[in-house]
Design a protein that fits this description.
72% helix; mainly alpha; globular
């Protein structure tokens, strides 16, 4: 029986497109920018460890390393996404925009904290009244808060596009729980002091509302990460690491809430020590690893599910085989 061998010669452009892409090409200009920023941040933040007095306090130096790992992971999020998902900018634009905004906000945060410290040194808050300098700082903080909320919202939409779609009731319950946990801290202060705690009036109220929404949005992102893994989305390793990051975020947030409750309502001293800092940094490191493993590639196929071919393609191999047999 004759054997028919079909060979197909690829055009040079198609052959070049099918070549495996290395990590350097995957990152692209945007990925390389944030990768360099992350390395530079690590070098600057870990400079105290090069001094003669380094490691005199092992606990303090260890916490510095843990905090630096978290900060570096935040800056490297866009690079990790592009490394695991080179086409993220086109195929999952919301996830790409979200991680880029999160990294940019993390770059601005130190400058904002320095500005707030300088303003507090210049303005006498005990005198009361309206302070234009303090109000301007509150407006800048409000603008950064809005950008942060938009970034987390974009990440949530990107996970939705990747297939992490829990039931709407689950998301509503998770967001409501986050809002309640955040309001518990403020309601007693408002009851005791009234609206005087909002020194700049509507600016402070809006800033507080943005922070509550930001907190709830992160809970929604954590829920999407966990549900995406339980739904069996692929790549499995990426979603497993992402689910671990989401679960750790929720556990760390609940532990922080319990610690504050113990001191504010029960008068007890409850401290988890450096565990909360380690958990906070670990969330960012795990999220970076999940993105580098391909989280958010935009496929809704479950693990073990084969790609379905159109009906008109299913009979082609058999037809070709029967034609070859008849020709023989």
């Amino acid at each position: 029986m004759a054997r028919v061998v079909q060979r197909r010669f690829l055009a040079p452009a198609e052959a070049k497109a099918r070549r495996p892409v290395g990590p350097a090409q995957r990152l692209g200009p945007v990925g390389w920018v944030f990768a360099v920023l992350a390395v530079a941040w690590a070098v600057v933040a870990l400079r105290p460890l090069t001094e003669f007095s380094a490691f005199d306090s092992v606990d303090k130096d260890a916490l510095l390393i843990v905090q630096t790992l978290g900060d570096v992971a935040i800056l490297a999020l866009p690079a990790g996404l592009l490394l695991g998902f080179p086409g993220a900018r086109r195929r999952n634009p919301w996830l790409f925009r979200g991680v880029v905004l999160i990294a940019l906000v993390s770059l601005v945060q130190p400058a904002l904290r320095a500005l707030q410290t300088w303003v507090l040194d210049q303005v006498d808050l005990s005198a009361g009244g309206f302070s234009p300098l303090y109000a301007a700082t509150a407006m800048v903080s409000l603008a950064i808060g809005i950008v942060s909320l938009a970034a987390v919202w974009a990440v949530s939409d990107g996970l939705f596009d990747a297939g992490a779609r829990p039931r709407r009731l689950v998301l509503v319950l998770v967001a409501a729980a986050a809002v309640v946990l955040d309001l518990v801290f403020v309601v007693p202060l408002v009851v005791d002091n009234g609206l005087a705690i909002f020194r700049n009036g509507i600016l402070d109220i809006a800033s507080f509302a943005i922070s509550v929404a930001f907190y709830a949005a992160w809970y929604v992102v954590a829920a999407r990460l966990v549900v995406g893994f339980t739904l069996g989305l692929v790549p499995r390793r990426a979603w497993a690491v992402g689910a671990l990051a989401g679960a750790l975020f929720i556990i760390g947030s609940l532990a922080t809430t319990l610690q504050v409750w113990a001191g504010q309502f029960w008068g007890a001293s409850l401290s988890f020590g450096p565990a909360l800092q380690v958990a906070s940094s670990s969330v960012w490191v795990l999220l970076l690893v999940a993105l580098a493993l391909g989280l958010g590639r935009g496929t809704n196929r479950r693990a073990g599910e084969r790609r379905r071919l159109p009906r008109y393609q299913l009979g082609r191999p058999a037809a070709a085989g029967s034609a070859a047999g008849s020709a023989a």
